[in-house]
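@channel sequence for tomorrow's demo:
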Amino acid sequence: MNERPNSNAPQNDDVSYSIADLRYFTDDQFQQFYDYISDDRKKKADSYKLKQDWKLSVLASFQLERLLESMGVKRPVHYTTTPGGKPLLDMKNTEFENASAAKTDADLKDASTAKADADLKDASTAKADGKKEIFFSISHSGNFATAVVSDKYSVGIDVEDVTSKKRDVNKLMKVADKYFLPEEIALINEATKGDERALPGAFYRIWTMKEAYMKAVGKPLLEVFREKRYDPDDIALKQKYNSEAIFSIYRVVPEGEK
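structure tokens (generated this afternoon):
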């Protein structure tokens, strides 16, 4: 994740994501982001009591709705949820442009104190053919907010800021021993080789995969712990990480594509 503060890049032609670090934006810029997002996302952001959490929610929502707009979704964006609570676009009230919006991410670039990638435009191969379903997921943690969209795959994303959790090595191992599969414990041990400083990274590579998978398939996390084994070579999984954060994207790939 050694990228500029705003990173917009495709996983492939059918999956686009964005990740941003809130430390690169001013309060005035966050107000601009807030003014841009839909009423549903404003309500979500306003439910947070801490300013940091409000900013993360706004930043994740802004990235999500810029990605959706790039795929031809007209504003304002309307949302709904499944009976299990998985967020979806409200297709009854969602309107599309006649073709891909194909806009650059100028708003995000202008709002950033650093140069934003132009990949958001290049990643936007939206197929706005009527009411085709678009899948999405967002996540935020620490200083980072992320979003992913796809018009082909059900997707999930999870980010974890590991800097505030490095002291909790014993706690992490207790969680791993309780919930992770034996093969995953072995991977952690192999990655750390007794060096506790490496444990948060090894732990959260597995944890974020399972969270992202949970969001993509809409299953309870405890069920995911039992059934989904971490595989760093899984073609459906994309991970990026550095010393501050780790994030995972998981897409549900049909058997014929594996």
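heads up for whoever presents: Residues 6-152 form a domain with the Ribosomal Protein L22; Chain A fold (CATH 3.90.470.20).
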